[in-house]
Amino acid sequence: MNIKSILITLIILSGSLAHADKDTLVPPEVQKLAENLVAALKSGDDAALLACWHTPEARAKINVAEEAAEAAAKGKTLSPEDLAEEGEDEVEDCTEENEDTTERAARLRAFLTKNFGELSALTLQSVDLDVDEDAPSEQPAYEDFDFVLRTADGTMITIDVDDLIKVEGVWKFTGRLDDDINIKLPEKN
Q: What is the CA radius of gyration of the chain?
């Protein structure tokens, strides 16, 4: 084997390995959640859309537990009043994120309908996610949850959701639906 062949083989292998690291296996329950999200987007059902997210109260419970654990790790104890305030702040923040999500979903529906026709023609093509390496093992999480939709004319639309966490055995989103989308026009024949 000459040097040129070895170099070409190494380039191909390194490209394959780099691509393999980027691909994260999508658990079936996460795939189902993505399908529910797309169905809610297509139907315009904001209640079904928000059902894909952990409730503000569930997020507050998690946040309060995290704050208490961080304080304990530093040898401190938070008062019940501090913890209650922390929970109230988290509920308020998550409620605002939910409002942003429903508003962004409405704008997304209007944009897609105007430029690509009926929402019913949208199909979920793929889900791309990255494991959150900083998440504790008792609370697994993904970051950068992207889902790709295909329009009737073959245009690919990529939409992002902030994060995805598993709480009490259930995967749901946290954060908000992103207001940036990526559009890839179909190839010309």
A: 21
Model confidence pLDDT, tens digit, residues 66-122: 888 888 888 988 888 988 999 999 999 999 999 999 999 999 999 999 999 999 999
Q: Angle at the Cα of 181 (from 179 to 187), degrees rounded to 5?
A: 170
Give the residue among 57, 62, 60 at the shortest CA–CA distance from 139. 62
According to DSSP, residue 53 is labeled B
- Identify the burial level of 145 via C-beta atoms within 10 angstroms of its C-beta, where 0-12 means exposed, 13-18 middle and 19 or more buried: buried
Terminal Cα distance for the chain, rounded: 39
Measured distance CA(11)–CA(152) in Å, rounded: 37
For residue 90, the surrounding DSSP H or E stretch is helix 80-116
